[in-house]
């Protein structure tokens, strides 16, 4: 199969979807790899490294779309790419379609095979291709939140860890999954008082066992959340419903109970955000304020730490990319059920329930298209 590796064009996105080592594995499996020039430079991988690994460098994204049977990205295709996508071409990347109606409609019109990293799912419910970026984003959420608590950044002037004789800051994390637990670990390490909210009692028991003593797992509810927000200095939204829009857990009216200069980091913004007042921002303009509450809603947080993120991403995606390339997407789905929930749109039909529900569109069971 001919695999195309694109240079990312989303604002302030510096990752690349495959390292030179990944290209070498693809070549060992008999596949041709096309890499757009300068695709890996911001992640620390020069063109020459890809050439030495066996890739062919090409000048434009248009050439990759014209030649490749499977196109790989990090972020979703941008509007300038929509017309380049071919019927039956495999697009393998983060898609987050439930928050992107325009992209969903473009992929339906293209008739392509669209496999989303974030909805590939193991039998235990885990999301193996989302996990590494969730780990990065969770750790960054606390790091960025601590920075924007500084007075000159618009925050309240709180040092999360405090100092001897001065109380530490209060961090409220909504969601005890991968993002939440990684955010909590960093916040605990800084010395903050951390409240980790979830609605799964078994998960809360687990968190009580494994988290440091300055982390307090709490059963979440609307009244509990409202009360927690009163004393919060940093609020991190870390909820996820795979493939579907994120629920709006912090409503506009809740901002009125919060302290001026509180920072809110919405890690769920890729899926529409879990704060009612959220809107996507970029690394170049990461924050905005609503009612004196600082909002950080960058939709590609791991892009700021591209070297770490690219290596972690390739580690996770490469086995699936090799399997799809070796077998073709249909046979790969037949032989590896983890890939099936990753297939979001095929041949103009939506094959993921969460995406269909987000836009009240028709859902088609993928089994009908795998025959």
Assign the CATH topology of the largest domain: Rossmann fold
Helix content: 25-40%
Termini, distance in Å?
A: 21 Å
**DSSP strand count:** 15
CATH class of the largest domain: Alpha Beta
**Shape verdict:** globular
Oligomer: single chain
Q: Tell me the major beta sheet.
A: 8 strands, mixed
Mean pLDDT: 96
The helix/strand series, from N terminus to C terminus, equals EHEHEHEEHEHEHEHEHEEEEHHEEH
Strand content: 15-25%
CATH homologous superfamily title of the largest domain: NAD(P)-binding Rossmann-like Domain
Gyration radius, rounded:
21 Å
CATH architecture of the largest domain: 3-Layer(aba) Sandwich
- Contiguous low-pLDDT stretches (5 residues minimum) are none
Strand order within the widest beta sheet? 3-2-1-4-5-6-14-15
Q: Helical region count? A: 11
Q: How many structurally independent domains? A: 2
Backbone structural class: alpha/beta
List the helices and strands and how they pair.
Layout: E1 2-5, H1 20-28, E2 32-36, H2 47-52, E3 56-58, H3 61-67, E4 70-72, E5 90-93, H4 101-110, E6 113-116, H5 131-148, E7 170-174, H6 178-190, E8 193-198, H7 201-210, E9 215-219, H8 222-231, E10 234-237, E11 263-266, E12 287-290, E13 293-296, H9 306-327, H10 329-335, E14 343-346, E15 349-350, H11 353-359
Parallel strand pairs: 1-2, 1-4, 2-3, 4-5, 5-6, 7-8, 7-10, 8-9, 10-11, 11-13
Antiparallel strand pairs: 6-14, 12-13, 14-15
What would you say this structure looks like, in words?
The protein is an alpha/beta fold and 371 residues long. The chain has 2 domains: 2-120 and 306-369, NAD(P)-binding Rossmann-like Domain (Rossmann fold), CATH 3.40.50.720; 134-299, NAD(P)-binding Rossmann-like Domain (Rossmann fold, 3-Layer(aba) Sandwich). Helices cover 32% and strands 16% of the residues. It is built from 11 helices and 15 strands. The chain has helices at residues 20-28, 47-52, 61-67, 101-110, 131-148, 178-190, 201-210, 222-231, 306-327, 329-335, 353-359; strands at 2-5, 32-36, 56-58, 70-72, 90-93, 113-116, 170-174, 193-198, 215-219, 234-237, 263-266, 287-290, 293-296, 343-346, 349-350. The strands form 2 sheets. The chain has an 8-stranded mixed β-sheet with strand order 3-2-1-4-5-6-14-15, sandwiched between helices. Strands 9-8-7-10-11-13-12 form a 7-stranded mixed β-sheet, with helices on both faces. Helix 6 (178-190) links the parallel strand 7 (170-174) and strand 8. Helix 5 packs parallel to helix 6 (178-190) and helix 9 (306-327) packs across helix 10. The longest helix has 22 residues, at 306-327. The radius of gyration is 21 Å and the shape is globular.
């Amino acid at each position: 199969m001919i695999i195309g590796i694109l240079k990312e064009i989303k604002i302030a996105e510096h990752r690349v979807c495959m390292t030179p080592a990944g290209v070498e594995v693809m070549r060992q499996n008999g596949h041709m790899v096309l890499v757009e020039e300068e695709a890996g430079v911001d992640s620390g991988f020069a063109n020459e490294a890809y050439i030495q690994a066996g890739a062919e460098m090409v000048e434009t994204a248009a050439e990759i779309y014209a030649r490749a049977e499977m196109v790989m990205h990090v972020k979703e295709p941008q509007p300038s790419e929509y017309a380049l996508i071919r019927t039956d071409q495999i697009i393998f990347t983060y898609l987050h379609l439930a928050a992107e109606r325009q992209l969903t409609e473009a992929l339906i019109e293209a008739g392509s095979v669209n496999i989303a990293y974030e909805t590939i799912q193991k039998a235990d419910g885990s999301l193996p291709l989302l996990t590494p970026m969730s780990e990065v984003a969770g750790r960054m959420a606390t790091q960025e939140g601590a920075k924007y608590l500084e007075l000159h950044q618009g925050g309240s002037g709180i040092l999360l860890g405090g100092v001897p004789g001065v109380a530490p800051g209060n961090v409220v994390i909504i969601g005890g999954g991968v993002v939440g637990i990684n955010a909590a670990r960093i916040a605990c390490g800084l010395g903050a008082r951390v409240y980790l909210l979830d609605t799964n009692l078994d998960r809360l028991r687990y968190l009580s066992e494994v988290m440091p003593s300055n982390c307090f797992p709490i059963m979440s509810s609307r009244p509990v959340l409202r009360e927690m927000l009163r004393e919060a200095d940093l609020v991190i939204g870390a909820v996820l419903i795979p493939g579907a829009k994120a629920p709006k857990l912090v409503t506009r009216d809740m901002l009125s109970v919060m302290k001026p200069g509180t920072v809110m980091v919405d890690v769920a913004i890729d899926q529409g955000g879990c704060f009612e007042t959220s809107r996507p921002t970029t690394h170049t303009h990461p924050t905005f304020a609503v009612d004196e509450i600082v909002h950080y809603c960058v939709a590609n947080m791991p892009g700021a730490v591209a070297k770490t993120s690219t290596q972690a991403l390739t580690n996770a995606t490469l086995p699936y990319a090799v399997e799809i390339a070796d077998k073709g997407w249909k046979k790969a789905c037949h032989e590896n059920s983890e890939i099936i929930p990753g297939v979001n749109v095929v041949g103009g039909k939506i094959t993921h329930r969460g995406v269909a529900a987000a836009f009240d569109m028709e859902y088609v069971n993928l089994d009908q298209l795998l025959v």
